[in-house]
Design a protein that fits this description.
Blueprint lengths: L18 E10 L2 E11 L4 E5 L6 H8 L7 E6 L2 E3 L4 H6 L2 E4 L11 H5 L6 E2 L2 E2 L1 H15 L14 H14 L4 E5 L7 H16 L3 E5 L3 H7 L2 E6 L2 E7 L5 H9 L18 E9 L7 E6 L3 E5 L6 H9 L6 E6 L2 E3 L4 H7 L1 E4 L3 H5 L6 H6 L7 E2 L2 E2 L1 H14 L16 H13 L5 E5 L7 H16 L3 E5 L3 H7 L2 E6 L2 E7 L8 H9 L8
Parallel strand pairs: 3-10, 3-11, 6-9, 9-10, 15-22, 15-23, 18-21, 21-22
Antiparallel strand pairs: 1-2, 1-4, 4-5, 7-8, 11-12, 13-14, 13-16, 16-17, 19-20, 23-24
Helix pairs in contact: 4-5, 14-15
């Protein structure tokens, strides 16, 4: 996704903040979740709140929204101390929190959702005409493409999000908290949301923006505040923001320590060979080779065909042409089951829809691919399966109370490690990773990089699709670049071409000049 970074930064902070949270402390069962946290927000700014999962961001925002009550500390709105005892009080003082899981009534109209709990009346009857007029006005101010009489179940997720914003504007909210607002949006919908956020900012509304996506923060944030382990670490203004400083503040170590993979100068034997593979549509006939113990990055702009290529290799999509060879032997891969049987693993881009069984326990998710190997005469050896899951939890540092915790109840980073653990359990010879760190916090990213490096050190051949250029450069022994469905360039290895972000983009965009070693 390409995000417009040419945002207008508001004037220097005015004397009176719209929000001050001072010395906020919260304990659960005696365990501190927040310790003496401060946060200051000014009108007309987008203020990013960042930190790893468990840093205390959600707890702090739930205190602001009245879902929790702080054990100690003070909240001021426009310089006046307020007591926010419940969500209703938060709304009355101008605070709205838009959760990642949207709070809408799908069977009601847009107008009915906007005025839910605050309906207008004329005498003994609802004043539907007036509510529809006001709803239309607020929707128009957001540039919404839907109307006041549309049924909410017919709206997209992005439109439902706009509906929640419209409700906040109707309630005269001056502080809007958005928690991972792009998590369920397409790239186009996300760009549209950013336009809405910029308009809200220009209207003087303060936006507290919670996201793990650095690119969004760089594009939108006027200031950033960082929490770590329940404590306030500090704030940065827009001109102070850098990846190095953010990483240092969030995880306590520098960017130089982030990518643990040591680039390989020598590689093992060829393990996977792909010859002339194509789907006849998006992916043109393609050849590539992976060697034992190397990490090959697959880069390119959105729509270049990276995901489609990896799915063809894995048998998730039908081939129009081409062959896949493993250790020199031609494979017959007509389905993912054939690829798994041959020792090829695949972590998909969308872990929730395509990778995990969310209602299933974490232990069963890990052991799923091992059932055939560790079962005899159709009988599952549960002792062996449990041992596989327990070993994986320890090896991958998956944070869960027990193996029965459902996959859906884990953080994004732990869900991703769950998927990686599933493939490690079958001891793959080839692992295809599609956006392996998408939607996880920085601490989890670092752990996933360690796992990937460890797998390569064990001789696994890895093809890693990623849209993050820093990740591609930091983790790859070689980089293959796709453009418009075909491989157009290779960096590193024996090419003599440096693996740099500039060289990757030169190939991805069709620029001709790259820098040699």
């Amino acid at each position: 996704m390409t995000i417009d970074t040419q945002t207008s930064v508001p004037n220097a902070p005015i004397a009176t903040p719209v929000l001050e949270m001072r010395g906020i402390t919260k304990r659960f069962h005696g365990v501190p979740a927040l310790q003496n946290v401060n946060l200051t927000i000014y009108p007309g700014e987008v203020h990013a709140l960042m930190g790893e999962n468990g840093a205390g961001k959600s707890t702090l925002m739930k205190i602001l929204a009245g879902a929790y009550i702080a054990d100690d500390g003070e909240i001021r709105i426009n310089g006046e101390t307020v007591t926010i005892a419940d969500p209703g009080t938060a709304r009355r003082v101008g605070i709205t929190l838009i959760y990642q899981e949207l709070n809408v009534a799908p069977n009601l109209t847009v107008t009915e959702n906007i005025f839910m709990g605050s309906e207008l009346s004329r005498g003994q009857f609802l004043d539907r005409a007036q509510m529809e007029r006001q709803a239309a006005d607020v929707l128009a101010s957001l540039g919404a493409d839907f109307g006041p009489n549309d049924v909410v179940s017919n709206l997209s997720i992005a439109e439902q999000q706009q509906l929640e914003i419209a409700r906040a504007l109707k309630d005269k909210s001056r502080i809007l908290v958005m928690d991972e607002p792009t998590a369920a949006l397409s790239d186009r919908e996300a760009v549209r949301l950013f336009d809405v956020i910029r308009k809200l900012r220009s209207d003087g509304i303060a936006i507290i923006y919670i996201s793990h996506r650095m690119e969004e923060v760089y594009a939108l944030a006027d200031r950033i505040s960082v929490l770590r382990d329940g404590e306030y670490i500090g704030s940065l203004t827009r001109d102070e923001i850098s990846a190095d400083r953010l990483v240092q503040m969030m995880v306590g170590r520098t960017m130089g320590d982030f990518y643990e993979h040591q680039r390989q100068t020598t590689v093992g034997a060829a393990v996977l060979e792909v010859r002339n593979i194509s789907d006849g549509r998006k992916v043109k006939p393609t050849n590539l080779t992976l060697h034992a113990g190397e990490i090959v990055g697959l880069s390119g702009l959105v729509g270049a065909g990276r995901t489609e290529l990896s799915r063809l290799i894995f048998g998730a999509d039908p081939k129009a042409s081409g062959d896949v060879f493993l250790n020199g032997e031609r494979l017959k891969i007509n389905s993912p089951g054939d690829a798994i049987e041959a020792g090829i693993g695949y972590v998909p881009e969308d872990r929730k829809d395509q990778g995990l069984f969310l209602e299933m326990s974490s232990g069963k998710n890990i052991a799923l691919n091992s059932l055939r190997q560790d079962s005899r005469v159709g009988v599952i050896n549960f002792g062996t399966i449990d041992k596989i899951a327990e070993d994986a939890v320890e090896s991958f540092n998956i944070r869960l109370a027990n193996l029965e915790i459902r996959a859906m109840d884990l953080s994004g980073g732990n869900q991703q490690k769950l998927l990686l653990a599933r493939w490690l359990a079958i001891k793959p010879r080839v692992l295809l990773l599609d956006e392996p760190t998408r939607g996880v916090d920085i601490g989890a990213k670092s752990e996933i990089y360690r796992i990937i490096s460890d797998l390569a050190a064990q001789g696994v051949a890895i093809l890693m699709v990623s849209s993050e250029l820093a990740e591609i450069v930091g983790m790859s022994d070689r980089v293959l670049v796709m453009r418009e469905g075909q491989l157009v360039g290779e960096l590193g290895g024996t090419t003599g071409i440096d693996i740099t972000q500039e060289n990757v983009m030169a190939y991805a965009t069709g620029a001709s000049e790259v820098t040699a070693s």
